[in-house]
Recover the amino acids of this structure.
């Protein structure tokens, strides 16, 4: 899709592309309404009509939106732009665990520290009936202050749709086609 710097995506102003993946692109954007930068993940237009990808994108929003834990990326908003759904997450500064491991191996102390943070995030998700199912170094982000954040709940399984996670799509009725 390749949105350019300065263009609008809903209320968000595109600053730069910060990543691309199998389902779309992630942009650093500015929300002028509250004066903060956020990350916007936009589903690729080629997947808008693909029910499987659309369902995964909506599932990611439901899963991430149901969670509130310091080791899980925060979902702020959802929306659509020219029929393409997007998710608005907190903007993280740092690197993925994969990038960190490319530089050098972790010390035992650091590996244990990271393991505890990952376990705490996963435990919080499991308490809400959410199983991540795609945990890998690319989906673990290390912030500049050393906090780990679990990303990308696109393959998550919602185990208790009638409990704390609603079976009704929070997206379909208000944001997505």
């Amino acid at each position: 899709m390749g949105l350019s710097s300065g263009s609008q995506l809903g209320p968000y102003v595109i600053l730069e592309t910060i990543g691309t993946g199998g389902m779309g692109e992630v942009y650093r954007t500015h929300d002028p309404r509250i004066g903060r930068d956020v990350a916007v993940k936009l589903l690729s237009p080629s997947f808008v009509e693909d029910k499987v990808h659309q369902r995964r994108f909506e599932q990611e929003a439901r899963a991430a939106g149901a969670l509130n834990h310091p080791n899980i990326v925060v979902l702020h908003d959802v929306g659509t732009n020219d029929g393409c759904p997007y998710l608005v997450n907190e903007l993280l500064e740092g690197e993925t665990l994969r990038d960190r491991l490319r530089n050098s191996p972790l010390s035992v102390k650091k590996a244990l520290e990271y393991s505890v943070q990952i376990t705490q995030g996963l435990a919080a998700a499991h308490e809400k009936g959410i199983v991540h199912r795609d945990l890998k170094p690319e989906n673990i982000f290390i912030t500049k202050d050393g906090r780990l954040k679990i990303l990308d709940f696109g393959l998550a399984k919602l185990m208790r749709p009638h409990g704390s996670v609603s079976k009704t799509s929070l997206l379909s009725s208000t944001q997505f086609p």
About this structure: The first strand starts at residue 8 and ends at 9.
